[in-house]
Amino acid sequence: MTHKWGSMQFSQWGKDPSDTGVDPEVLKNIVKSSVEIPDTIKPHQRLTRMHIAHRLKSIEEDKFDWATAEAMACGSLTIDGYNVRIVGEDVERGTFSQRHVVFHDSESLGGSKFTTPLRDSKYMREHAKGRFAALNTNLNELGTMGYEYGYSLENPKNLCLWEAQFGDFYNPAQLIVD
Fold first, then answer.
1. What is 45-78 written as a DSSP string?
2. Which of 40, 47, 82, 147 could be stapled to 130 by a disulfide with Cβ–Cβ 3.0 to 4.6 Å?
3. What domains sit in the chain, N to C, each tagged with a CATH number?
4. Could you give the 3-state DSSP secondary structure of residue 134?
5. What is the pLDDT of residues 26-64, one digit of tens each?
6. Residue 102 per-residue DSSP state
7. What dihedral do alpha carbons 77, 135, 91, 167 form, nearest 10°?
């Protein structure tokens, strides 16, 4: 593995901080492209109204929610040449329906036609040097986590994110402190 990781600079070596900012216009283009749906895909009307329209309006008001910031982060990383993989039980839609990085056609049988704008939109196809993937997985958390850990070791430019639903592991009532 050292041949792939040999050029990696680690913070404990005392290197000066790098400029990690992203041009605001690039971020706005990423946000717009994150909800760019081809004419062949007809998303559910509630998604069109509550997610797509809301995200486009947020650009004009410079108010970004968590999911929009996540789209900007993932998109800017792929533009910089990093591969971003987000996996988990319901990551395409988002556990709490906030993400929607994959849009299914509401008129096709079982939503079999779909698009992933952070990968498929015109802007991202033209500018991304890395890959973006959002992959729904089954409830085999340990298998998924083990696979993603191995995948992340393969290349220092792979960012593998694993989204878990905490309720699968513990009772939320245990977090209540007297």
1. HHHIIIIIHHHHHHHHHT---HHHHHHHHHHHHH
2. 82
3. 22-162 (3.40.50.12470)
4. strand
5. 999 999 999 999 999 999 999 999 999 999 998 889 888
6. S
7. -120
At 92, the amino acid letter reads: E
Token pair 């498929």 is found at: 120
Residue type, 16: D
Distance CA 132, CA 36 (A): 15
Residue 144, token pair as written in the block: 């998924």
| The two three-digit tokens of residue 46, written as one number | 């509630």
Q: Which pLDDT score, from 0 to 100, does residue 176 have?
A: 47
* 87 touches 148 (CB < 8 A): yes
Instruction: Please give the Cα distance from 95 to 91 (Å, whole number).
Output: 6
Query: What is the pLDDT at residue 169?
Result: 47
The predicted-structure confidence for 122-173, as pLDDT tens digits, reads as follows 999 999 999 999 998 887 777 888 888 888 988 899 999 888 654 444 444 4
Which pLDDT score, from 0 to 100, does residue 14 have?
64
Looking only at the bridges linking them, the beta strands covering 103-104 and 83-88 are unpaired
CA dihedral in degrees (47, 115, 33, 62; nearest 10)?
Answer: 30
Run of H or E including 135: strand 132-136
CB atoms within 10 A of CB 40: 9
**Look-up: residue for tokens 């971003």?**
84
